[in-house]
Amino acid sequence: MPIARAAKRAVVRLGAVTLAGALLAACGGSSDDSSSDSAGGKVTITVDLFGSFGYKEAGLYAEYEKLHPGVTIKQTDTEDEADYWKSLQTRLAGGAGLADVQGIEVGRIASVTQQQADRFEDLKKYGADSLKDQFAPAKWAAATGKGGEVLGLGTDVGPEAMCYRTDLFQQAGLPTDREELAKKWSTWDGYLDLGKQYKAKAPAKSAWLDSVGSLYSIMIGQEKERYYDASGKLIWEQNPALRSAWDHAVQAADAGLSAKLDQWSPQWNQAFSAGSFATIPCPAWMLGYIKGQAGEAGKGKWDVAKLPGGAGNWGGSYLAVPKAAKHKKEAYELIKWLTAPEQQTKLFQKQGNFPSATGAIEKVADAKDPFFSDAPIGKIFGDAAKEAPVQVLGVHDQNIAQQITNALSEVERKGTAPEKAWSNAKKGVENTIG
């Protein structure tokens, strides 16, 4: 889910549950490893996530409970990952109110491994070492602590593509064939040019894309180094690739190509079915989100094409077990099962979350999605996953990204001058990370 994951991770995020609910469901802070909540060996495993990782929707919790009589899984969600992370930091500091399983967005995993390893279980004590070859090397390495601790198991990754509304394209006189579009928008300049053509003949109240923040996020996901270099040095201000992503987002705002929607807002959610935008930068996890928001009426109206500018990754997540969890061993067994190739395969087939388990990647290569006009999503996202750069992850990646997208929102919605907004982003980063 994992940013997205995230940015907003944005990770795929369906149906928010309040933070208060999350705290109540995950009460405690006890280090008790007892395996039962009551007599009879029954155990309730609490899972706290941001948005929706798709486990409940794909029926995986129900399947696990059937395979493990006496186990009940209770999940809580916070739709906005930034709110989720802030609350998690408060609970980790106090050692209370934590669930047995906590989701970690990929943009936060460096913070866990470099600064908070003492607050999460080293999963090696439960045998996680044996799972190393199950995951893509980069996915596994990112959750490994300085001392070799295994601090989380990988869920999905976020290979990128472009999702678009074929019906809206037709109304604006644009081609709808995914291969033809991939050629026309092989570059980001080509994508913006096509957007200007769309705007000239677009249906009423329909923009080219949802927000310039999503354009920035997808473009920066194509880069190996974004906010930090490989040595751990902050480089975001001087990074030409980041500035290019910023400049293209500003161009989209200036050209009036955006629907000016805050991602993850109620208005944004409604826009998927209302036709308020024709394209949306689309990491694999976004497929399940679009299905959930557009509903059955959207089936066949959407399609997926190769991303402009080359392959990239936006988002992805991990499942971790806090030291203050009540049921550590049971939590590990659950996340081991959820992240296994078999379950990652099912999750992709039902929700679109692209697997990080190597065995699952092979199994989904030929997958097509009828909701998205039978798009060959296995090949599109599989090729992107193979070609995407292994990204350098820094401690404050997500915080910096949030400040930049906030600044772009100022340009988009308030008409703030780009250089003023950039200065505001710089100040925001300084205030956030010191």
Automatic annotation (TrEMBL):
Keywords: Signal
Lineage: superkingdom: Bacteria
Any single Pfam family the record assigns to this protein: SBP_bac_8
Signal peptide: 1-25
PROSITE patterns assigned to the protein according to its UniProt record, in alphabetical order: PROKAR_LIPOPROTEIN
InterPro entries to which the protein is assigned, alphabetical: Bact_solute-bd_prot1 (IPR050490), SBP (IPR006059)
Region annotation Disordered: where it falls in the sequence: 412-434
Protein name: Extracellular solute-binding protein
The species this protein was found in: Streptomyces cinereoruber
